[in-house]
Amino acid sequence: AVDVVGSGGGQVQTGGSLKLSCVGSGFRYRGHSMGWYRQSPGKEREVVSCISWSGTSTFYTDSVKGRFTISRDNAKNTLDLQMNHLKPEDTAMYFCAAAGGTGFTSTLEEYDYWGQGPQVTVSN
Hints:
Elements: E1 3-8, E2 10-13, E3 18-25, E4 33-39, E5 46-51, E6 58-60, E7 68-73, E8 78-83, E9 92-99, E10 113-114, E11 119-123
Parallel strand pairs: 2-11
Antiparallel strand pairs: 1-3, 3-8, 4-5, 4-9, 5-6, 7-8, 9-10, 9-11
């Protein structure tokens, strides 16, 4: 069975750092783009960062550029998101996702497999 499990997260003060991790199983991890999305109460789910299957292409939404770094290890089926200089507006539930299309994508609708969590809370 397909499984995508996110971990990490927590509560930090403004300016702090957190690292999110994700492990995929039950699908051909090496052939999938991977991404992190987030959703706050009352808002739509939005893309945070994505990475191609090879790791050579990445995407960051404007609000996290220069602060977040996405990486993957295809040997371990893992995906990481290092988040630095966190702001209160980064507070959200974060989702790890996998897209099995033929090319690199950051489009939410093209992501097939989704994991639940983790929660990130940034306080003033």
